[in-house]
Prior knowledge:
Blueprint: E1 2-7, H1 11-16, H2 19-26, E2 30-34, H3 40-47, E3 56-60, E4 70-74, E5 78-82, E6 95-102, E7 105-113, H4 122-144, E8 148-153, H5 177-188, E9 193-194, H6 195-200, E10 226-230, H7 232-235, E11 238-243, E12 259-263
Parallel strand pairs: 1-2, 7-8
Antiparallel strand pairs: 1-12, 2-4, 3-4, 5-6, 6-7, 8-10, 9-10, 11-12
Helix pairs in contact: 4-5
Domain Endonuclease/exonuclease/phosphatase: 5-256
InterPro entries: AP_endonuc_1, Endo/exonu/phosph_ase_sf, Endo/exonuclease/phosphatase, ExoIII-like
Site (Interaction with DNA substrate): 256
Amino acid sequence: MLLASVNVNGIRAAVRRGGLDWLAASGVDVLTLQEVRADDAQLRTALRGSVFEGWEVAHAPSMAKGRAGVAVLSRLPVEAVRTDVGPEFEGAGRWVEADVVDGDHRVTVASAYVHTGEAGTAKQDEKDRFLTRVGERIASWSAAGRSAVVTGDLNVAHTQDDLRNWKGNRGKAGFLPEEQAHLDRWAAEHEAVDVHRRLHGPGPGPYTWWSWRGKAFDNDAGWRIDYHWATAPLAARATRAEVGRAPSYAERWSDHAPVLVEYAV
């Protein structure tokens, strides 16, 4: 099962820029999207005429028009869909999970979008609470022995290897010790695995996000903030991982690059 995750920075904009064509050519079986920024009808219209038309769609749009929104698209059967990750975040468009069935295997695939945050503000406190809820969900999966994975834009660079200019970003949202501590707990306490890092090995990079401004992309001055965090049973089945970095700035269709992982399920 080839699973790809990407923050599309608006599904309709990604379609105009050729994003769906790129994803279709990759041969994915399951696709998770963040920052869809569309309602159900708009998402299905955007998929029309592509290989993804007719696929199973689990979508959690944001109640705030033009904001957030996450989705799971699957060519494989989907048994159940859940969007709850705590009452505070109902309707925020930040979480959706689907139970995907591939033969005799059932894999829970979640698409998560964590907002940027701002150090020392209520916005950062909200980000902290959301990451806590995600950790609780991972813990419940691990306790049940489920094959499950959180994919998506977490807006956290876990270590210095995940951020080119880590010295200049100390004390800033996205590289705060308290944010990184959440991911530390996922690994140490909940036995979750950062699959791409395990398969790739040490960094720096590969990065998954670069600013549209300046020469960040050309100089590879990026952040690795898009992940597959899998429970141990599923992580053991991960065989390869890659970042779909565009060949050039002109060929980018989002400020994020897709993260693709193949699982032998």
